[in-house]
Amino acid sequence: MQFDNIIFEIDCKPVADSINSRRFQNTEVGDILRSCPAKLSNFQSCCVQFVSRQVNQVAHCLVRTSRSFACQHILDFSPTCIDSLVVLILTIFYQ
Predict the structure, then answer these.
(1) Is there a smaller number of Cβ atoms within 10 Å at the N or the C end of the chain?
(2) Cβ contact 19:33 at 8 Å
(3) Over the chain (95 residues), what is each successive 10-residue block's mean pLDDT?
């Protein structure tokens, strides 16, 4: 499976800045982040962007929902917490 034009959105600005600038602290977290550019180079085109947690509510709702399942699987439905957020976002963008 090949993906092009991938945007990784994260809600931790220092992490996004560190990956994009390729400046890493000499810590355990820095060691983990240091491996990210090599992994990202496997994609044809990708970038890492900071988004605030408020903007990224749908993703956070998905994460909370996924933690409630004991095993990995694909949801064939939209969790109810996401339905209301999507409606809210569409209402804001299409006023």
Answers:
(1) N
(2) yes
(3) 75 88 87 85 84 74 66 60 65 60
